[in-house]
Amino acid sequence: MTIGGRIKQWRAEKGLKQDEASSLLGIPYSTYQKYEINDKKPGAYALEAFANVGININWLLTGIGSMLLKENETVSISTATPQPLDMELLQFCIEAVESELVKNDMALEPKAKADVIRLMYLYCMLDANNKQSATVARVLKLVA
């Protein structure tokens, strides 16, 4: 069986339509369709999305092993739904990264900058004590 066939098998076992599966994974519908018909192979972003919903990537790529990750490694469909962004926090993270880059006369490729902002945002979301300045300092040390 092909990768596309295994993706289709997973979707059928979950009882999802193609548009529901693409939405769950955060993958454009047309791209998802191409995966299922083997017109395109999933890249790193898509593989991460498949793993985040509990698909065993080894099985997906090779057909070896179980379809799903162990129960404690899976993300339920209800928790896989993206949470609304905290726009104030996101703005804070973008401004902090931009400021630090300017201050240190540094530049990042757009994808790298987006990754740093995403990382900072996630750290700030997990910061129970709301010490964003300490979080920013830690993340920006990674940038430097």
From TrEMBL:
Cited CDD domains: HTH_XRE (cd00093)
InterPro entries, A to Z: Cro/C1-type_HTH, Lambda_DNA-bd_dom_sf
Domain of life: Bacteria
GO MF term list: DNA binding
Protein name, UniProt field: Uncharacterized protein
